Amino acid sequence: MSHWSDRIDHLRLIRTEGIGPITYRRLLDRYRTPAAALDALPELARAGGRTTLQRITPSAVAERELERTDALGGRMIFLNDPGYPSLLAMMDDAPPCLILCGTPEIATLRCVAAVGGRNASANGQRMAEGLAAELASSVVVVSGLARGIDTAAHGGAMRTGRTIAVIAGGIDQPYPPENADLHKRIAETHLLVTESPIGTVPQARHFPRRNRIIAGLSLGVVVVEAAPKSGSLITARIAQEVGREVFAVPGSPLDPRARGGNDLIRQGAILVESAADVLDNLPLQPAANRARKPGFAEPELPFPADPVPLDARSFMLSLLSPEPTMVDDLVRRCHLSPSVTVAVLLELELAGRLQTFPGNRVALLPDVFE
After folding, report:
1. Fold of 101-279
2. Fold of 312-369
3. Domains 101-279 and 312-369 share a fold
4. Dist. CA 228–CA 55, nearest whole Å
5. Could you report the per-residue pLDDT of 198-221, keeping only the tens digit for each?
6. pTM (2 d.p.)
7. In what order do the strands lie in the sheet with 354-357?
8. For a designed S-S bond to 187, which of 45, 80, 192, 213 qualifies (C-beta 3.0 to 4.6 A apart)?
């Protein structure tokens, strides 16, 4: 099979209905090639109880997306490709495919994220810009190209070094509109990163996925002005979960925009007044430098050679709920072998009956529970 055909098959698998980042990894761990995984999908979904035909992305659709991405100056990089950012690849739900526009090598360098609120104060924006300018002389500054703190951070970093903008939509969809020129400059001379296909208009559901990429690329995340329950705090939480350092700039207790950052400091984030506070506390590697597990079980665990018992799927469904459950707990309670448990959960997910989460957890989808 040619390299081009292999890339098309990878993209077909990634864009197929019901295939998320964790499922993509497990399918490749089991079937080794995307072509073999695609061939297996219908039978796996039927075994899990799916009664409708699964929509598998046609080759022509995937080929057209690759060609359009190339035509717009983008480059698709898949999870196991050389050059895929190694820190991001450590995440359980690392994007199977990134679309890069600019200088891809920037994503392999040491990175620090600087994020914050869209409705930032003038002082907050000045702090973010100055901090990013100091940081960018030593590390790459990552942010989300949003209004406010993100825009200031990109601007400061571009004065003295390099920056990465992680966006929620396609590389052809500048957002917010007033950042169209900044979007273009970063794509030409720095690096624009997304997992969304060409033409994707950013929606609210895309931003948490973008935030995990910001955290995953970075050794540390600096929060400058963030209200409680803001997207910046989601980024900080993800960073902490995957062993990255969390930093925060303190703010006035009278300003609600500072409450999120102040809470982070209260919870143990490193207080930041200058770039030195970040660089002096930045680790060489993530604190939780866990080698990724390719599936629910250990890499050496084989899938069962024998058929799955007829009652295994209904029994597994009875143990599951809408609340995420550790797969290790299921293995202990279901009295099935780990390999059979893995196989059953994969079938149920492809049938659209459960969802997987980072940290080796699964949950029933609501309509199954009802």
Report:
1. Rossmann fold (3.40.50)
2. Arc Repressor Mutant, subunit A (1.10.10)
3. no
4. 39
5. 999 988 888 989 999 999 999 999
6. 0.86
7. 325-326, 361-364, 354-357
8. 192
